[in-house]
Amino acid sequence: MQWIYKEHKEAYHLLNTKYEDEFKDILDVIENTSEQNIIDVFESRRQKSIDSNSKKDKSLSDTINQIFKKSFESKSWKSESLIFNESGYTKKNWRLDFVKKYISLEVAFNHHGTVCWNLIKPYLASEQNHVKKEIETKISVIISATKEMQKLGGFDNAIGKFETYCSYLRPLGQILSVPTLIIGLEAPKTFKIVHTKEGKNNIGHIEKY
What we know:
globular, 7 helices, single chain, six-stranded mixed beta sheet, alpha/beta, 24% strand
């Protein structure tokens, strides 16, 4: 997959100098996820949903999440990592997608209403807090979909896109003391997701060019 980025507080420079091994992991996962790999996993998920009579995927969201989860875990990234170590803060919204050493990593294809929270969670993981901490990180990476990926990948119009995350960096700049790199995944070049209606649901299908 191809990608673009925007940095906050020199995050790109820091990742290339102080955290180069972990940053190499991130780039390896993205760049070694081929379009054929995405097609294969999407179709496999579709067949499983047919066999189990469950809802079929609309977009590439769950496919990419599945590929990334397997890939990051194979590189010893901890998934679903708790930010805090107190019983009242263990639900999903208090967790990070992945953590390794000093890096918080979010793979964010969810609603645009969560953009601010997704930016703040790594800040909470990196700063001192009155709540007992589970982890301590120093830098944040957020992987999102570009506007073109949102369109061609079958994503809902309401997701928080790369462009949305970038626009939030300016007003939140004084709050986000943690260096943050926003990565935007670019749209596939050899296929797109098209939708058909099954009952009330929009179902995604691969259409190759």
